[in-house]
Amino acid sequence: MNGWLLPVMLATPVLLLLALGIVAFVLRYQRRLLRQQEQLRQVRDASQQQALEAALLAQEEERRRIAADLHDGVGTTLAIVKLHLSTLGQPDLTQEATALLDQAISEVRRISRNLLPAALQKFGLPFALDALARTVPADGPTQVLIEQRGQPRRLDPKRELIVYRVVQELLGNGLRHAHADSISVSIDFGPDYLSLQYLDNGVGFDPAAGDTQPAPGSRTGLGLTNLRSRVAVLRGTLRHESAPGAGSRIWISFPIPYLPADQAPTLVSAL
Amino acid sequence: MPISPWLITFAEYLERASNILVLVPLGMAGWRWPHLPSALRLLACYLVFTEATLLAAALTEMYWPRWHLLVWQAFTITETLFFFRIYYLTLRVPLWRRFIVVAAPLFAAFALLDTFYLEGMHQVNAFTHVLQSALLIGLALLYFEQLLNELEVVRLEHDPLFLVSTAVVLYFSGTVLMYVFINHFLTAKDYASNQVVYTINSIVNLIQYSLFALAFWYADRKPQAPVHS
Keywords assigned by UniProt (chain B) (predicted)? Predict the structure, then answer.
């Protein structure tokens, strides 16, 4: 046998093993890099989620503060002014001023209620949603139906507020822009989820035109951006279906842990 | 140490098997041709060229045995240029592409120098083979680096060019030592030793053709990264 054969026979497998080692290293290293990238993406998503949540909570806190200031400050001052007017004992002269003051007081109450729905804080989401439905005049151009299915239950107050805002936004957008004859919102309190279905027979919108400058008088899906932000805070999903002239349908689902009956926020006694 | 006759028979069969196995990637390339990106089409052309060279080498050995090795020396140059072009189409870093543009004529010049001056036309050009192995393994490693930098491919084992590069790394690292010593085996006129050496070549060829076949198989199953022409 040739004297060179043995070294070649021995060294070649070693070289092949080295080559295989390089390939295996590349495969493993690539997997590790992909895993790290995925972890980084998850951390980024989580921090975005936290920032979004913080922004929305700050917004709600600011609303709460303004609502309290309006109700306790401006509202009380107006009430005192009205009291002073009544003590003048000249109803003929103060009648118009008193009427204007009444109008201002009710306006302050309305704004305050919109900023922070007292019904939500006191009685919870199911009651607040009913109250929201009652705020739309029954003899208006749009018939609004808010329907609750399943077993209406209390949630964590922060979640209740977000869900309420979502319904409020859906309804507000629909009333302002859809020009619909009817709007229906159904809320399904599932075993471990809460789903919303919005349906209108209005002008609809082009879902693809969300990021473009809207033409005057046209409707875009820009309201969806706010909805998405709120839905994202509760890690929910949003799906929509619409076309110009074909109405709109929006489905939202939240994975929601309901509060046990004994942990439900207690009703405020002073109504 | 004597070599068993069964091992020699096995080596002969293995060599034939590796020559036949090339039909598998070729068939696969023909089947997937409309979906193949430029780099893989070039690889298919290289396989056709390999088969044509085998035929030309057999005819030359029969009629002009003195010039038989010249066919393989020409093949080595063309094979390297084929792979240079494949990697030129695949690699995206401009510096690496410029390196290929510069390395291709330099390699061809060195191979011609080796053929006509250093080692001559009548023996296997070991220097050229070593340089070829170093360059092509280097290009394959550059492609690995590109994959790791871009992280666009999730399953590397399904990436056709990763499979081709793996084949290149395995083939050239498995045969480089054989080519360094091949002239010693050929001059020794020891048929048994030669056959064992060719067995090494056949084994890495089998691996190479299997990986090429897999590369063609996955060619239309996964979107390829854009190639530059």
Answer: Membrane, Transmembrane, Transmembrane helix
